[in-house]
Design brief:
Structural class: alpha/beta
Radius of gyration: 21 Å
Helix content: 25-40%
Strand content: 15-25%
Bound molecules: zinc ion
């Protein structure tokens, strides 16, 4: 077995964010020894691939989530695809997992992550970010374009994808910045971009977003290129001026109100005229969600995050920067109502908005503190805990975190366990109890507003493209095992 090449990048940036702390393998992401040696007893590492293709894998005697229910059975994986699902499979495979006490779910798909890397590698890089994804049960993630350099042209998209390809542990696709230039938009679409992200409070590429004519041209360019438009809906003119902000409490209080719902209504109005497909990111208010769902259009979709349904403004009052993100946490009454909507099926998907920053950027004065929290490693344990408590059905969890995001982002062979599908799977131990411990994150961002929360239900093993990438606390996949995803062309969300 060949030892993994050293990645100088990881070493450089580790000192930045974690100066003065003892460095364990978890703090800088997986160690090379962890990756190269692996820890599975019955499994060979992906290094042992046969020259003719990928090793076959048999998951034996598991509880398997199929379309609407769990069944007992085995899954045979060959060439990275699910070849057979049956009560008993006699065939021998190169590798085997005995999964008696485990539940197999389709690999989770996160349509909203910030993997940073390049000039922002001190916050996160492709390897640590996708290690966090694998540890959290996510087998495909889509990266947001506010990187440095930003993903604002077909050329930048190509460079970013190229850099990612040799570093990623799960599959990664890319969103691009919203532009008016329809030729460049078409080029980004042809390059595989999953959407154009319209970040209304502060556009990624220069754009006069207050001017409806400009935003209309963006929507038209999206329509012409059959490209999804993803929107961060907050009306900049309704947000507080920095001079008004003294405390973290000010940040959330002054950002209350209708900045989000007003922006949602504005985009909905323009979308109605143009007809392009629009996905609303991290909707944080029930009024915004109902404005979208009332249109009941297959060209519209919505997203909620775990933090907006489980936390409230009170957490910002007590935790300050650890609970600071945009849109901010909302009053308890609003988050309760958002939770109920999530449970009953109104938002289309759940995404983590994994947005790591260095602690020194978060600890600044409230008006300068970087908004965003890591979320890839907490989402599934938190949601499984709700399932165990009877507050969320397993079916709804799978729809929100796998099946529906695969549909919204047109990943046709993902989001379900069936013969012929990509073998992206997560094996969970539904009974295992734990506690959220940011020190153990593979992400470089070692903080979380969920720190200390008790959980029941944990990721046991994550399989990406037919290969075991994560197993019981260790990353055993090799960077590059994930694939760079490219978007298809879809005008409507299949029901
Ligand atoms: Zn985001």
């Amino acid at each position: 077995m060949r030892a993994r090449e050293r990645d100088p990048h990881l070493e450089d940036t580790a000192t930045n964010a974690k100066r003065g702390r003892t460095t364990s393998s978890r703090e800088t992401g997986p160690s090379y020894a962890q990756i190269a040696l692996g820890t599975l007893n019955n499994l060979k590492s992906p290094e042992s691939e046969k020259t003719s293709g990928l090793p076959s894998l048999l998951i034996r005697d598991a509880h398997i989530w199929t379309k609407n229910d769990t069944i007992r059975g085995s899954i045979l994986i060959e060439d990275g695809k699910i070849r057979k699902i049956a009560r008993n499979i006699a065939k021998q495979a190169d590798e085997e997992i005995s999964a008696r006490h485990l539940l197999v779910l389709p690999g989770l798909v996160d349509g909203h992550v910030h993997l940073r890397d390049m000039q922002l590698s001190y916050k996160e890089d492709f390897t640590t970010g996708t290690a966090a994804a694998a540890a959290g049960g996510f087998t495909s993630v889509i990266d947001m374009p506010n990187s440095l350099p930003p993903t604002d042209s077909a050329e930048h998209l190509r460079e970013r994808a190229k850099r990612a390809s040799r570093k990623i542990l799960v599959n990664v696709g890319f969103h691009a910045a919203a532009l008016e230039d329809s030729d460049e938009v078409r080029a980004m679409k042809a390059g595989g971009a999953f959407s154009m992200k319209l970040y209304l409070p502060s556009p990624i590429a220069p754009l006069d977003v207050d001017d409806d004519r400009v935003v209309t041209r963006v929507l038209e360019a999206a329509k012409q290129a059959s490209l999804l438009l993803t929107v961060h809906a907050e009306d900049a003119s309704m947000l507080p001026r920095t001079g008004e902000i003294k405390t973290f409490a000010d940040l959330v209080r002054l950002r209350r109100g209708n900045a989000e719902t007003s922006a949602v209504r504005r985009i909905l109005g323009l979308q109605k005229k143009i007809g392009c497909r629009v996905h609303f990111c991290h909707v944080s208010l029930p009024s915004s969600l109902s404005a979208i769902s009332n249109r009941s259009s297959s060209r519209l979709s919505s997203e909620v995050t775990p933090h907006h349904i489980l936390l409230s403004e009170n957490h910002v009052m007590t935790q300050g920067w650890k609970a600071w993100m945009v849109p901010p946490l909302r009053p308890r009454k609003e988050t309760r109502s958002l939770f109920r909507a999530m449970k009953t099926g109104i938002p289309t998907i759940m995404a983590t908005d994994h947005a790591p920053h260095a602690i020194k950027e978060k600890e600044r004065a409230p008006r300068k503190s970087s908004p965003g929290i890591p979320g890839l490693e907490t989402a599934l344990p938190l949601m499984l805990t709700l399932v165990n408590k009877g507050k969320l059905s397993l079916g709804r969890l799978v729809s929100l975190l796998s099946t529906n995001p695969a549909k919204v982002f047109d990943l046709r062979s993902k989001g379900g366990i069936e013969t012929g599908a990509d073998s992206d799977l997560v094996l969970v131990d539904l009974k295992k109890r734990g506690r959220i411990d940011p020190e153990k994150f593979f992400s470089k961002a070692h903080y979380s507003p969920f720190e200390g929360w008790k959980t029941q239900g944990a990721v046991h093993t994550t399989i990406v493209n037919g290969l075991v990438v994560y197993n019981e606390g260790e990353i055993i996949g090799k960077p590059g095992v994930g694939k760079v995803l490219k978007s298809g062309s879809m005008n409507e969300i299949p029901r």
